Amino acid sequence: SRTYATKFATFLPENLDINSSLIPETKERSLYKSVVYTSQNAIRGSFQFPDFGKMGVNKDQIVWEEAFLVMGLSDLRGIQNAVSIEVEGKSYNFDPGAPSKPFGIKALSTYFPLDPEDQKSFEFTMNLDLKGSERLFVEPIGKRSMVRMDAPWPDPSFKGNTLPDDKDVQDEGFWAEWEILHLNRTYPQKW
After folding, report:
1. Which residues of the chain have pLDDT under 50?
2. What is the torsional sign of CA 153, 158, 160, 163?
């Protein structure tokens, strides 16, 4: 008798561009003040067709029709709209959870069947509105990740592994830009 196991391969996007606009709001409760925000995030990028060449996987064992896209978020409660991704003119709706969580995080996913005969790269776009407090972090999962952030907030604090490549902070707000390469991270493009 044979034993079969399902294993998952993860492929990250080639390019990831995120344009994020934050709208801060000060909330007061008794003696305390806290700042919360709403962010509007326009996300676009591209994937290459998955290449299992150096992974030691027999192509006959790949279940192409069960491929899926995963998006990780640290706190799903901040989602403010239905989340969908548009790929080559077709829309795919995300649901909570994922068959595989590549970073062990909370996630949304959508099935995205692939055709092994049509091995082309593809581009995607999506809009994601989030509410949060304290901070907004972005994980640079693209081979090349570009992030632009702006807000009418005069004193931002830039934290994380990478400081902005360019920024402008004024009394009426700020903007900042980052370009991060896969070589600046501690994990590969595929595994």
Report:
1. none
2. positive
